[in-house]
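Quick one: sequence plus 2-acetamido-2-deoxy-beta-D-glucopyranose SMILES, need structure tokens.
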Amino acid sequence: MPSHDHVAERQHHRPIRRRLVNTHHSGKTHPLIWLAAILCTIIAIGVVIAGIVVFVGYMVIHPRIPVMSITNAHLDLLSNDYAGLLQTQLTIIVVAQNGNAKAHATFSDIRFNLSYQGQRIALMRAPPFDVPKNSSKSLNYVVRAASIPLTPQQMEEVDESWKRDVIGFDLKGSARTRWRVGPLGSVKFWCNLECQLKFHPSNGSYIHHSRCTSKSK
Ligand SMILES: *[C@@H]1O[C@H](CO)[C@@H](O)[C@H](O)[C@H]1NC(C)=O
Ligand SMILES: *[C@@H]1O[C@H](CO)[C@@H](O)[C@H](O)[C@H]1NC(C)=O
Ligand SMILES: *[C@@H]1O[C@H](CO)[C@@H](O)[C@H](O)[C@H]1NC(C)=O
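Reply:
Sure thing.
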């Protein structure tokens, strides 16, 4: 029975194959095929030209991804009591920079978490804003935390920080940035900022150990 089925199938296929071969040998190409070939060629050339335009535009405009960075900070207050409550105040200066000479940039969805030893201290936010061509805008945050409950281990860590005269806070967050690239439209990116802000508890000064600047995605 299976061999019978097979034969039936072959008979069914044979005429189709023969017809295809005939078309190939006839030498006549249907005008629609010519039209399709011409259209394909035009589209291919268009794609190449568009690619060149984008590339030249990129080279001329030289777009730079807007960045956010922490330029300065200060530890205004740090106090911990025996009950394990931490009281602190920090001033943090975040700068949104648009290095594009020919394009406005917009920053939005700005959210940064400030934490100490995994314990969240504050959420820093800002409404959306524009940064004109080749300029920057700074956001000054004054973060106050009245009574952050610490675990015994975190309390020990604070004591250690006083002794070493170095304390670190973690800043993590992101912002959305959008800017125009020539007439071709706008580009959107997420700026991700993640760094540790270190201070001397004795005088509150910020330790500029490394530049805290956003990475884009
Ligand atoms: C961008 O600004 C810097 C200083 O703020 C200036 O030196 C530079 O010439 C400016 N570039 C353009 C293209 O305007
Ligand atoms: C900030 O922390 C909260 C809770 O810990 C979390 O839900 C939120 O996603 C964090 N936000 C950012 C921008 O990391
Ligand atoms: C703060 O104290 C540190 C260490 O004691 C010192 O290196 C730094 O210069 C001081 N900063 C200011 C502004 O006094």
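Residues 1-24 have pLDDT under 50 and may be disordered. The radius of gyration is 32 Å.
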